[in-house]
Amino acid sequence: MADYTLKNVPEPLRSKLESEAQRSFRSVDQEILFRLQRSFDADDTRMTALHAKWIYDALNSGEAAAFKDTEIDAALSRGLKRAKKRKRTSA
User: Fold this and answer.
1) Which of 30, 49, 83, 87 could form a disulfide with 26 if both were Cys (CB 3.0 to 4.6 A apart)?
2) What pTM did the predictor assign?
3) CA angle (13, 19, 24) in 5-degree steps
4) What is the DSSP letter of 68?
């Protein structure tokens, strides 16, 4: 297991971590790992719910129809333009 050292932890956060660790009968390291894992679990849950919504929407969207090559090309073009625009605004 890798070791990490946290630097420049603000005093209010350090104090809160120590209090919560003590309240939960964990060490500060265990508390940090517990909360970090919980944040990843929450992300996974949100993505699972989003994927379920996409599947539900797709199943209830009506009859399936094959895409034409021109429709696929147009969709890819729109996606590339959006990606380039996001890249420019985030830089």
Assistant:
1) 30
2) 0.56
3) 125
4) P
pLDDT digits (tens, 9 = 90+) for 41-85: 999 998 998 899 989 898 888 888 888 999 999 999 999 999 998
Residue 86 in tokens: 């996001």
The full set of domain ranges for the chain reads 11-90
DSSP code of residue 6 = -
Write the DSSP assignment of 24-64 as a string of letters.
TT--HHHHHHHHHHHHHHHHHHHHHHHHHHHHHHHHTS-S-
Q: Which two tokens stand for residue 63?
A: 């009859």
Which residue's structure tokens are 């932890």?
A: 9
Kindly tell me the burial class for residue 31, based on how many C-beta atoms sit within 10 Å of its own C-beta (0-12, 13-18, 19 or more): buried
